[in-house]
Amino acid sequence: MAGRKEEELKDLTLLGNQGTKYLFEYSPEVLEVFENKHPDRDYFVKFNCPEFTSLCPKTGQPDFATIYISYIPDKKCVESKSLKLYLFSFRNHGDFHEDCVNIIMNDLIKVMEPRYIEVWGKFTPRGGISIDPYCNWGRPGTKYEKMAEYRLMNHDLYPEKVDNR
Amino acid sequence: MAGRKEEELKDLTLLGNQGTKYLFEYSPEVLEVFENKHPDRDYFVKFNCPEFTSLCPKTGQPDFATIYISYIPDKKCVESKSLKLYLFSFRNHGDFHEDCVNIIMNDLIKVMEPRYIEVWGKFTPRGGISIDPYCNWGRPGTKYEKMAEYRLMNHDLYPEKVDNR
Amino acid sequence: MAGRKEEELKDLTLLGNQGTKYLFEYSPEVLEVFENKHPDRDYFVKFNCPEFTSLCPKTGQPDFATIYISYIPDKKCVESKSLKLYLFSFRNHGDFHEDCVNIIMNDLIKVMEPRYIEVWGKFTPRGGISIDPYCNWGRPGTKYEKMAEYRLMNHDLYPEKVDNR
Amino acid sequence: MAGRKEEELKDLTLLGNQGTKYLFEYSPEVLEVFENKHPDRDYFVKFNCPEFTSLCPKTGQPDFATIYISYIPDKKCVESKSLKLYLFSFRNHGDFHEDCVNIIMNDLIKVMEPRYIEVWGKFTPRGGISIDPYCNWGRPGTKYEKMAEYRLMNHDLYPEKVDNR
Amino acid sequence: MAGRKEEELKDLTLLGNQGTKYLFEYSPEVLEVFENKHPDRDYFVKFNCPEFTSLCPKTGQPDFATIYISYIPDKKCVESKSLKLYLFSFRNHGDFHEDCVNIIMNDLIKVMEPRYIEVWGKFTPRGGISIDPYCNWGRPGTKYEKMAEYRLMNHDLYPEKVDNR
Amino acid sequence: MAGRKEEELKDLTLLGNQGTKYLFEYSPEVLEVFENKHPDRDYFVKFNCPEFTSLCPKTGQPDFATIYISYIPDKKCVESKSLKLYLFSFRNHGDFHEDCVNIIMNDLIKVMEPRYIEVWGKFTPRGGISIDPYCNWGRPGTKYEKMAEYRLMNHDLYPEKVDNR
Amino acid sequence: MAGRKEEELKDLTLLGNQGTKYLFEYSPEVLEVFENKHPDRDYFVKFNCPEFTSLCPKTGQPDFATIYISYIPDKKCVESKSLKLYLFSFRNHGDFHEDCVNIIMNDLIKVMEPRYIEVWGKFTPRGGISIDPYCNWGRPGTKYEKMAEYRLMNHDLYPEKVDNR
Amino acid sequence: MAGRKEEELKDLTLLGNQGTKYLFEYSPEVLEVFENKHPDRDYFVKFNCPEFTSLCPKTGQPDFATIYISYIPDKKCVESKSLKLYLFSFRNHGDFHEDCVNIIMNDLIKVMEPRYIEVWGKFTPRGGISIDPYCNWGRPGTKYEKMAEYRLMNHDLYPEKVDNR
Amino acid sequence: MAGRKEEELKDLTLLGNQGTKYLFEYSPEVLEVFENKHPDRDYFVKFNCPEFTSLCPKTGQPDFATIYISYIPDKKCVESKSLKLYLFSFRNHGDFHEDCVNIIMNDLIKVMEPRYIEVWGKFTPRGGISIDPYCNWGRPGTKYEKMAEYRLMNHDLYPEKVDNR
Amino acid sequence: MAGRKEEELKDLTLLGNQGTKYLFEYSPEVLEVFENKHPDRDYFVKFNCPEFTSLCPKTGQPDFATIYISYIPDKKCVESKSLKLYLFSFRNHGDFHEDCVNIIMNDLIKVMEPRYIEVWGKFTPRGGISIDPYCNWGRPGTKYEKMAEYRLMNHDLYPEKVDNR
Ligand SMILES: [Ca+2]
Ligand SMILES: [Ca+2]
Ligand SMILES: [Ca+2]
Ligand SMILES: [Ca+2]
Ligand SMILES: [Ca+2]
Ligand SMILES: [Ca+2]
Ligand SMILES: [Ca+2]
Ligand SMILES: [Ca+2]
Ligand SMILES: [Ca+2]
Ligand SMILES: [Ca+2]
Ligand SMILES: [Ca+2]
Ligand SMILES: [Ca+2]
Ligand SMILES: [Ca+2]
Ligand SMILES: [Ca+2]
Ligand SMILES: [Ca+2]
Ligand SMILES: [Ca+2]
């Protein structure tokens, strides 16, 4: 066994690239994918992204969040450096928390066409209240659509302890 | 993509407003909503609210709690600054813990007409005992009513460790 | 809206009462209830009680526990100060851990006639071993009986880490 | 109500006994039981046992574990001091981790004839890897057999964080 | 009862062996198994492995992870020292995180032929994002295949808090 | 030995008193003291007060804090129920965080005339930043004045981890 | 080397004794000591005692605390089972928190005549406030008196986080 | 006593101001101060700032940190909303971690002329390593200069556990 | 640079040795040392040993502890596998907790002749109380003797939270 | 103000460099430094490095550690990417834990000539025991030499809790 070969990686233009350019305006086109080598199997990939920041659409004030993304790949996996650049591109973009997680999920669905995906944002508080939106999606007409419904029904029965400190 | 536009936000009178007036008597009318831009999808929004305080209806002593609110929006989302003002309006209001969480949920149902909602209050102890009421609701006659029943049946199988310190 | 009125609270003889008498022999008669104002809805009330102490029936040695009580009220709720006095009444009473949680649940069923109830005791160790009994109950012949069976089947799949320190 | 009476406890020869003899060779005969006073009800009893030690069958090196035991009693409960002595009797006994938890469960089934039982051992690492075997059992031909299958299927979906420190 | 006998252990060439040779190139042949003495029972064995390291296939940079492996044995159990050597053999091997967990599971399926198995890798972040792939497998055509599907559907509803510190 | 006698407690008008009146405007006169029975010894008394709330002097918005108070008594100790009422009296009072802790300390110095005292407030964040003022005082011209200087110099070398969640 | 010999232990009447009688009225006479075998060396012994309970001297309500005791022995060490019985003897005794820790320290000074000793009580809250008194003592005219002064001056610069839950 | 009066707050142009403008280029001029009302006393004010972000000066990649600022005021205190705006102004500014904390301290010294100040930055990792610079300063020629030296000598003897997760 | 050479390690008979014999009676002679290659520098070596077990000298009941050992080497360092075997040799040895830590320190002083050493044992509770003895030693007549006195005076000002669970 | 200029960074050959080569044999020459822009001030820089791995010099088995490095710069700071490469270069290098931390400190002294430096390694256990060596150094003949002595004397008075899980 030899691991991923040079050839399998040739479409990844960002990983290990020196001259990375960081975009701070919403740029979904930066997302890159690579081939899933285990398509005969359902399995999960999760990204933990604690360095997300965007702007409040009304006041322009910076917002901060940790974003958790989990998906079951079909033919493609999203490459993590391109995901980093994509998330950084919200830096000077203004939108509600509820909109951000839905947009992120929509863009990942478009580029990966996964079997299942979910996105959970956990934002820091403003005025003593923090907001944590969660959305998910399963390919329509498949068992993954039912999976999405099942996971939503079971979502977050145990809210984590939050005391704003 | 441009995020929420100025026009979409024009009905929000409180967010970013300088002359905010803080009401300390129960004021459900202060709640404001905005349009849900993802109504084709079921997703959760959670508010973590660790700065809730009210009064004991019998002794007048202040009570303190963290309130967790989770809902699946239909056409409307509740704006978080108005939610803050609403919760602050319990400051000089006297009621039992069990009543507070039910009232909060009733008011949010009225103003948002959500698909599903739940409210969990975790109060600080009096006399060595703390009380944590939890209520939920799904729109009658829909799958969300069953969802409420399912989530109640699975509620809090793992009570958090509490030692009053 | 006005919260609980003076009149609704007139049967509560203990809450806010100056001359509280603490009983240290098993006294189930001290329990008091008040009216549930939300009987059209199933919801949970949980009590966290980390100040429980009783005696070993064989050696007379004091035992200590945290007791967690959760129930779905029907017509009545148990008042928390009377619950405190009731639990304090085990102070000089001798019984096995397994018996204590069953007795507490039996007494609360009798006084509240709830739809559903569960009691979990987590005791400190003797001889390096600690004991945590858990019992529950749903009104026979109703969906709450099935709820009790379901919650027992799902009980404590993740035992908390205990190292006796 | 009077708690456990002297007479009910007369078969317990170890609890409160001064001349306790500690056996360090596998001694299942030391286990003692007492009558379950609540046989009309399914309820759980859990033992947390962080002071378990045995020997590696190949190298003779001491092994250490925390053992979690949960069961639903039928007619009998195991007395905790006798359980302590039983677990101490593995002190100079050599066996694989996988075997220890199965043997403990087998012995407890024999002496208590419970409705349901499960045993989870969490051992300290050797060579950077730790092993946590888990077994369970429900009385064959009853709903408890299905309960065992259900709990196995749901076992440990959230492995605790282990970093060997 | 005497525990594992010398004879039962005679095929284990690595455990307790002085001259252990550490291989740092992918070496699945190093895995050894021993007989499962409890084949009449479904039970879980979990390995916690916080000392996993491999290389990035593109940049050659070292990666670090904690690997959690859980399985239900059939006729054979994997011996933990051989598992250690196997995992150490990824030390100078380059592969994507998503590939590593799938390869580890494939190799363990081949050598143990278990009833059920799952592998979860939790890697440290690169560029602020960490990746946690999870795969599982149940023997095709048996109830364990359904178990795999069930556990995937319920996987990681509560992502652990990650803040890169 | 008999503990505190009825007579020693006769000046405490609030402890155990049924008709407690809760004042929500700054009321230092509510503080009560009792005799220190161990004046020949320097010792510390600490109060943990996680239920403090006041108003922002500019915006009127409620603020929340945990207040820690530690002192070495001289002739008098402050009674804890009167301290509770005193702290509750900031409920509708507006002042900066920096002022609140200094005022609390000044009032306690006046009523107790302690040898040494310190007050630390830990507030919840506004706009992503939380403020924790700390002041202390030792009786001028005594070793306690030097103690105050020493403790200030060693104050908070290890700021607690704060992430606003 | 042979460890403590039977003869060295002959004055310990409580350790391993079957007929232990638990006293619930303040009983300092129950304390027993044994010989310190390392008197040529200053070293610390600490007792962690999380099972302390007493009564409020005014209201009779039970109080609960964890008591930490640390001392440098001179000729005698206090035996831990007798310490347990002594602490249990506060069970039906009424006193202020500030008095309890001073009394415990006084009694241990009398029976052990240690070089240095300190006692810290951490009580559960009443009315939202918890009290943690701390006292210490060094033998007058020795370096241990200075040690006491030094440790008091450095006491508790980092109050633990308390949120009453 | 009346708290801060309107007049005392008239120089604060940002607190409670609706039209706050967020600057994302280094803007030390945004800092505002108010009068310290307790100048006769040395006391500490600490700011916890977990929402700091800047850019790497070489690669342009966003960096994230929690900044802890502690100071002893002299005549002036820094207003927290202006501090927020100041810290946000590093958003699109590129500098090394070591430089950022020194610059922040220099700017605060200039605007407040405090007696003592310290700044500690805790950044998220890049390439598996995180950097935490800490600087402090006491007014030259005063005891605060010695205080700075003392606190540096005692700085961070207990590095927090960091595992990049 | 080549690290430790084969020759430097030739006196270590236990490390990597296959036929390790585990002794369960007190065996100080098993301790082995190797040369300190950095004798021109004072530095600390700490051993964390959470797998310590011994017997109660009076009752024979097993005791369990975590032992922390820290020392500044002079010419010799103790080899960790021999330390493991030494600590395992207390397995069937009966002694008081206070004696165990003093004996361990005495034996390590004898074999290593360190500049400074300290030993802290943290035992699991019996009868609700746990005991944590701590002793230290500096070479008489050197600055290390003063170091021992200094560290004892500063020992454990912050007792860890213990709740026996 | 403009932050670090391109010119100031021109000697850093590794930061942002695409073709990074990872060396796995001890390579101190890879370390690079940049100019300290704040040489008039003593301040600390700390590196948290949880991804350190080396080999046992006797058995060849991989070891794992978290390394904490803190220093006060003089004219130069070590660049963190070069530090990463340096630490990675121990990957196939065999040495004792005690030697590794001393070597790392020696190399950093040579390349940076700092005023003060300390290195703390926290390794994972072998045979149930983990080893944490700590060394430090201050420039001879300066106050930093005394600082090193002071910090060693105060080192690790509170060993972190280690239970090997
Ligand atoms: Ca805020
Ligand atoms: Ca928190
Ligand atoms: Ca209370
Ligand atoms: Ca707690
Ligand atoms: Ca614990
Ligand atoms: Ca090991
Ligand atoms: Ca751990
Ligand atoms: Ca990173
Ligand atoms: Ca973390
Ligand atoms: Ca936090
Ligand atoms: Ca708490
Ligand atoms: Ca990284
Ligand atoms: Ca961490
Ligand atoms: Ca015990
Ligand atoms: Ca604990
Ligand atoms: Ca641990």
Automatic annotation (TrEMBL), chains A, B, C, D, E, F, G, H, I, J:
SUPFAM superfamilies: Tetrahydrobiopterin biosynthesis enzymes-like. Its EC number is 1.7.1.13. This is NADPH-dependent 7-cyano-7-deazaguanine reductase. PANTHER family: NADPH-DEPENDENT 7-CYANO-7-DEAZAGUANINE REDUCTASE (PTHR34354:SF1). Belongs to the GTP cyclohydrolase I family. QueF type 1 subfamily. Pathway: tRNA modification; tRNA-queuosine biosynthesis. It catalyses: 7-aminomethyl-7-carbaguanine + 2 NADP(+) = 7-cyano-7-carbaguanine + 2 NADPH + 3 H(+). Signal peptide: none annotated.
